[in-house]
Amino acid sequence: MKGNMDHTEVKPSKEVDIYRDTWVRFLGYANEVGEAFRALVPVSLVWGSYAVATAYVTADAVDKGKKAAVAHGDNPGKTTRVAVAVVDTFVWQALASVIIPGFTINRVCAASLYLLGRTTKWPLPVRKWTTTAIGLSTIPFIITPIDRSVDFLLDSSLRKVYDEGEKHK
């Protein structure tokens, strides 16, 4: 016979970061989706997707700055800590969520459209939709390698400048 079945363990609650732990995170991928659809939509929609992703990056950086300000209260060095939090988050997010993935999907789609044109006799609309499908299906595979590469890049450069070694949180 088993003992007391009351398993009401109190687990420490982790604060939910709206920019990392909710659907809002997907706004950071807007430009990748825009790039995947570039062959099918007006370029203004692609640029609009970059505006959405950039707004996400900026909002996350501001949020991390506000959290750093609260965490450091009136302690000396508060301004520096807030600046580091904002800059680290903005640079990391700009590289890992906008610049590198946008460029990657753009090149994958451009190469796909070119190769499909050279190797198939499919009509242009079919080639464009296939290119979009290839671009969209590439997104999940590039996220982790890009994130890790940006971590390495910042750990090897910018984070040494402010000597914190703290990653965006």
How would you describe what is shown here?
By secondary structure, the chain is mainly α. It is 71% helix and 0% strand. Helix 2 packs antiparallel against helix 3 and helix 4 (78-119) packs antiparallel against helix 5 (124-156). It is elongated and about 65 Å long. The relative contact order is 0.13.
**What letter string, H or E per element, gives the SSE order?**
HHHHHH
Approximately how much beta-strand content do the residues carry? Answer: under 5%
Q: How many DSSP helices?
A: 6
* Oligomerization state: single chain
The overall strand count is: 0
Amount of helix: over 70%
Overall mean pLDDT stands at 89
Shape, please? elongated
Uncertain spans: 1-10
Backbone structural class: mainly alpha
First-last Cα distance: 46 Å
Largest sheet: none
Q: Using only CA atoms, what is the Rg?
A: 21 Å
Task: Offer a concise description of the structure.
By secondary structure, the chain is mainly alpha-helical. The chain contains six helices and no strands. Helices cover about 70% and strands about 0% of the residues.
